[in-house]
Amino acid sequence: MFRWFFLCLRSVCLDCRIIQISCSKTRKAPMMKFRRRYTATVCGHRTRSEGKVSAYGETITTRMPIRDGKVAFCLNCLGEMAIRCAWCGAVIFIGDPVTLYIKPSEMELGADTVAYGSDPVCVVGCLGWDCASTGADRTGFWMPHEIERCGYVHRVLSPLEQAMMTGDMC
Predict the structure, then answer these.
(1) What confidence score (pLDDT) does residue 80 get?
(2) What b/e sequence results for 90-123 when a residue is b if at least 16 CB atoms lie within 10 Å of its CB, and e otherwise?
(3) 86, exposed or middle or buried, with CB in 10 Å at 0-12, 13-18, 19+?
(4) CB-hemisphere CA count at 13 Å for 4?
(5) 116 Cβ partners below 8 Å, 6+ apart?
(6) What pLDDT sits at residue 5?
(7) d(CA 111, CA 108)
(8) Which residues of the chain, if any, have pLDDT below 50?
(9) 3-state DSSP call for residue 165?
(10) What secondary structure does DSSP assign to 78-110, as a single string?
């Protein structure tokens, strides 16, 4: 038999005798409705700074940075910015590392495939076991655009490019 008392938006489970947000015995979900909500500066929707983001049938939990007491996007818009890997079809969420491989001439770009550059055309892929040869193939991150509601590849040097710049390849 479970009895609950509410004290200052917290609950006490008399069986566990702990002040809690969630109980190991009753498996109650965390009390999300009392967390602070923000108005996103880019999309204008009301949102929390952390929560679940869903796209293409997959769900992750993310925490957005708070700058000057504001967040840039809502959780739903972050889900809409997710893309699919050109090679395996895995979901690439905002903040995930990406690879850039040159598109084979026989490959047709699908609706969910993102191209990078024009000569040669590269396609954005994930860093999954089935796609990338090694972790050294990481060439950027899928990031949200600062002004528009879309994502882009934030290009960084790959570990191989960094090693070539130092001249210590041997």
Answers:
(1) 92
(2) bbbbbebbbbbbebeeeeeeeeebbebeeeeebb
(3) buried
(4) 12
(5) 100, 122, 123, 124, 153
(6) 34
(7) 10
(8) 1-25, 27-29, 31, 33
(9) helix
(10) HHHT-EE-TTT--EE-TT-EEEEEEPPTTPPP-
